[in-house]
């Protein structure tokens, strides 16, 4: 049986972590909300993706655990509390996957999840690392959702960050489409058919 003092210490660490993650609501992303009133924040992005995983679970391939994907997507951007959002189209798409960014995110994950009791810290850090590695069917599915949501949000908002970063359809295919199609090829075919007219109308289709 756990001692009362140990219980108090555990709950204190849990509440410290939950207080820390409130900061994610103040981390703004490149993609604006559909009504263009302000940028989307990373907490909103994570919550939306959790719903994507539930709603689009029937589109997932073999071996995907949709509820584990929900866990991944709820924690995948917590590192942005320390690192901030690195837009996928910034600096020609190279900054997002740079070694420096990945190292900074790894340090942030260890610090933030380390606020938790050891068992929870190990569990959530392993979940975050599985998502980042994108090797298991569930992580590949979660990564695909993470890439497709900004596409649909930009389309709702009339272009959003595509306009800000002067994105072309081939660039979208390279930086986003290949990753979405890896886990959700059928979905990407349908989403691409929706965005292609937007790029064609602006001479950005080729």
Automatic annotation (TrEMBL):
**Classification via Pfam families:** HD_3
Domain (HD): residue spans on this chain: 21-188
Q: Which one of the record's GO molecular function terms can you name?
A: 5'-deoxynucleotidase activity
Which keywords does this chain's UniProt record carry?
Hydrolase, Metal-binding
Cellular-component GO terms for this entry: cytoplasm
According to the lineage, what is the superkingdom?
Answer: Bacteria
Q: From the Swiss-Prot or TrEMBL record, give the protein name.
A: Hydrolase
What organism is listed for this UniProt entry? Paenirhodobacter enshiensis
């Amino acid at each position: 049986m756990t001692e009362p003092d140990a219980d108090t210490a555990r709950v204190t660490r849990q509440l410290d972590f939950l207080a820390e993650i409130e900061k994610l609501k103040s981390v703004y992303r490149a993609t604006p909300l559909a009504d263009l009133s302000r940028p989307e924040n990373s907490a909103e992005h994570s919550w939306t993706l959790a719903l994507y995983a539930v709603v689009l679970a029937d589109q997932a391939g073999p071996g995907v655990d949709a509820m584990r994907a929900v866990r991944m997507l709820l924690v995948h951007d917590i590192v942005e509390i320390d690192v901030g959002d690195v837009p996928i189209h910034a600096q020609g798409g190279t900054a997002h996957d740079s070694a420096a960014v990945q190292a900074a995110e790894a340090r942030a994950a260890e610090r933030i999840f380390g606020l938790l009791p050891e068992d929870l810290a190990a569990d959530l850090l392993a979940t975050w690392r599985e998502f980042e590695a994108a090797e298991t069917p569930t992580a590949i599915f979660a990564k695909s959702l993470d890439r497709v949501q900004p596409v649909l949000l930009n389309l709702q908002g009339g272009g959003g960050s595509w306009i800000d970063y002067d994105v072309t359809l081939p660039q979208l295919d390279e930086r986003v489409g290949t990753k979405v199609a890896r886990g959700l090829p059928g979905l990407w075919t349908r989403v691409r058919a929706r965005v292609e007219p937007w790029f064609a109308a602006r001479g950005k289709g080729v």
